[in-house]
Amino acid sequence: MKEIEYNLHDSIIAKASYKENGRLELDVQLYEIFYPGSPMVKVIISGIFNKEKIESFFEELTNDAEENDWIGYRIDSFKYDEKKQSTGANVYLFLAVDHLDSIKIHCKKLKISVVCPEWH
Fold first, then answer.
1. b/e sequence 71-91, b meaning 16+ C-beta within 10 Å
2. What is the pLDDT of residues 32-61, one digit of tens each?
3. What's the total number of domains in the chain?
């Protein structure tokens, strides 16, 4: 499995959406120290197998969202799960977010793309 192309440590989750077909989307403002200009990326996790766990996580994540759905939680860690081997359409991720319990995500696909090159 190739490396995750962005270091999301200390990045901020700005917005999130979850679709019942097992697709979690996170708009993430990258950490200024690593990425000058704080570009915004969209993290798309699709084909989620452990939907109940992710739905519960999503509810906690978005429960206290401020105006305009701004979440503002900092990512402590986002990486491939070191205890499970990711292969093909079996991707295992680990996500730790400030103020929430860390979560393991089992999905088919992870995609990260730049949404906005600069965020001010």
1. bebebeebebeeeeebeeeeb
2. 999 998 899 999 999 999 999 999 999 999
3. 1
56 within domain boundaries: yes
The amino acid at residue 93 is L
Domain contains 96: yes
pTM attached to this predicted model: 0.91
Share of the chain above pLDDT 70, in %: 93
Contacts of 67 (CB under 8 A, 6+ apart): none
Residue 5 lies in a domain: no
Q: Could you tell me if residue 6 is inside a domain?
A: no
In 1-120 the beta strands, taken as DSSP E runs, fall at 12-19, 23-29, 40-46, 73-80, 91-97, 103-107, 109-116
Domain span at 24: 12-116
